[in-house]
Design goal:
Radius of gyration of chain B: 26 Å
Helix content of chain B: 40-55%
Strand content of chain A: 5-15%
CATH class of the largest domain in chain A: Alpha Beta
Largest sheet of chain A: 8 strands, antiparallel
Helix content of chain A: 40-55%
Number of helices of chain A: 13
Distance between the termini of chain A: 22 Å
Order of helices and strands of chain A: HEHEHHEEEHEEEHHEEHHHHHH
Number of domains of chain A: 2
Oligomer: heterodimer
Low-confidence stretches of chain B: none
CATH topology of the largest domain in chain A: Creatine Kinase, Chain A, domain 2
Distance between the termini of chain B: 52 Å
Radius of gyration of chain A: 21 Å
Shape of chain A: globular
Number of strands of chain A: 10
Chain lengths: ~350, ~160
């Protein structure tokens, strides 16, 4: 398969984690785990020359390409990707912005179902990531941990018995593990409860971010919650901490929704149906509008107010309305105006589908 | 980092916007973020600084592996290589203590099979030699190398 065929195949299929079948998926969009790993006796990416990076990239690809899960998967060298194709990977959360745009001597390996992506020559030599829909941190760990072991047999990791896995930034040493969940909290935002919750989370050393991780803004009431301490705790303890925190938040969000429906039923229903109407009938839509309106529709689906739309449809919507996805889906370079028009048509098509027929 | 709106020293919040593949970043303080109506709920970017007195001698030390000095570590907010953890140990211990508390690693340990690793490395090297021999049309040598790869692969399979 050449590069274009690989990208087309990905565009045609939705990622496994967009399926919305995981626990708490009406509130938890997705879960993610990553391991930060480096090779022993090698400079970290930040201090390496282009030649050193390229040599290491080739070495890592050679060692990892034989791993079973990548047999039908994808390997991309950043050198061969266009700017739109790189953005596509970022929009899909399979690669970070820095990996794609900071240097050409980097790459990413992805399995066919898009449950695993390994970023090569990011801040650390290897960023091994696993994804799932809903709250499934332990489930991800169950498939990611053996993969990490297998990679550790193929390349020698930089490791210290006291400091654990050695990483470019000391924030990640120890387990090198970060566990995150992307949660949708519209009712907590409307009731302003979110501020109290954020204060509580900060005390528990949980990081709060927007849709696209570090440095990104909060959009569509989506919050990314992740563990910040990586040293001095076992992997299972970190997973439990984040899982418990997320379960608590799900409970708070459910309570807030109940209160809203008790005290402001008409206003909430109005907000939800207006958003639905705009998504379904507008002729021009920006990404930001779709993210915000679909947040209200997602709330409506969660509350059982909107019954002819599934979470799967909404998941697909929020990923595919992004600029690179839209342009690759229609195989056409488009300016802003054309994109807004095409986006509105795409949203209408997705929302008009019968329940459950999203590919 | 200086706030890019009011100029105060507290520009800890990083905003990144991606417009047609171009990343635009700016740093502002929490107060300005709130005034501007930006969401102040998100955590600031992770960074670390090396605090405390630095001895003059330590400032001159270069990591023998990557060649970085402490000033490079501070400038980049990252270490240059895993050996830097030893070279700049006293400072790293302070940083690690601030970030993670006085803790030791309690998580998993890599499963290491040195023998297998070396075999794999040897196979890779011989494969490169083989490619080279084929390019130069040295078929006698290529055949020998191919046999060598076979033997090494068999040894590795036995190891498994």
């Amino acid at each position: 398969m050449n590069k274009n065929e690989k990208i087309s195949k990905m565009v045609e299929r939705t990622s496994h984690w967009m399926d919305s079948t995981g626990p708490y998926s009406e509130i938890v969009f997705s879960s993610r785990i990553r391991f930060a790993r480096n090779l022993k006796h090698r400079k970290f990416t930040v201090s390496s020359t282009d030649e050193e990076k390229e040599e290491l990239l080739n070495e890592m690809i050679n060692e990892l390409i034989g791993i079973n899960i990548f047999q039908n998967g994808y390997l991309f060298n950043m050198k061969e990707l266009s700017s739109i194709e790189k953005e596509f990977l970022v929009e899909r959360h399979l690669a970070s912005f820095d990996l794609c745009f900071e240097s050409d001597n980097s790459g990413v390996m992805i399995d066919e179902d898009e449950k695993v992506s390994i970023m090569l020559n990011e801040e650390d030599h290897l960023r091994i990531q696993g994804f799932a829909g809903g709250l499934q941190l332990f489930e991800i760990y169950d498939f990611l941990n053996p993969l990490d072991d297998e990679i550790g047999l193929r390349v020698e990791y930089a490791f210290d018995s006291e400091l654990g896995y050695l990483t470019a930034c000391p924030t990640n040493i120890g387990t090198g593990l970060r566990a995150s969940a992307l949660v949708h909290l519209p009712a907590l935002v409307i009731t302003k409860e979110i501020e109290r919750i954020v204060r509580k989370l900060k005390k528990k050393k949980i990081l709060i971010r927007g849709l696209y991780g570090e440095g990104s803004d909060v959009k569509g009431n989506f919050f990314q919650l992740s563990s910040s301490v990586s040293l001095g705790r076992r992997e299972e303890d970190i997973l439990s901490l984040v899982t418990d925190v997320v379960k608590d938040i799900v409970e708070s969000e459910r309570n807030a929704r109940e209160i809203l429906m008790k005290n402001a039923k008409v206003q909430i229903e109005d907000k939800i149906w207006r958003a639905y109407g705009l998504l379904k009938y507008a002729h021009l839509l920006t990404s930001e509008e779709v993210i915000n309106f679909s947040s209200a529709v997602r709330l409506g689906v969660g509350l059982g107010i909107i019954r002819n739309v599934t979470l799967k449809q909404l998941n697909k919507l929020i990923i595919y309305i992004q600029p690179a996805h839209l342009q690759l889906l229609y195989n056409k370079k488009m300016d802003n105006y054309e994109r807004d028009q095409r986006r509105a048509r795409f949203v209408k098509e997705i929302l008009s589908l019968e329940k459950g027929v999203v590919k | 980092m200086m706030c890019e709106i009011c100029g105060s020293e507290d520009g800890r919040i990083k905003y990144t916007k991606v417009i047609n593949g171009e990343k635009i970043e700016f740093f502002i303080c929490e107060k300005c973020a709130e005034k501007k109506g930006f969401h102040s709920l998100i955590s600031p970017s992770e960074n670390f600084t090396v605090k405390g007195e630095k001895e003059k001698t330590t400032l001159k030390v270069r990591c023998p592996h990557c060649g970085w000095k402490l000033v490079d570590v501070e400038k980049n907010g990252k270490l240059g290589c895993s050996e830097c953890y030893i070279t700049f140990k006293s400072y790293i211990i302070t940083v690690v203590g601030e970030l993670h508390g006085k803790n030791r690693h309690r998580g998993k340990v890599p499963i290491l099979d040195k023998g297998k690793l070396l075999l794999r490395r040897r196979i890779r090297e011989v494969k490169i030699e083989l490619d080279d021999a084929l390019k130069k049309e040295e078929y006698q040598l290529a055949a020998e190398l191919r046999d060598k790869i076979k033997t090494l692969s068999l040894r590795m399979d036995k190891n498994e």
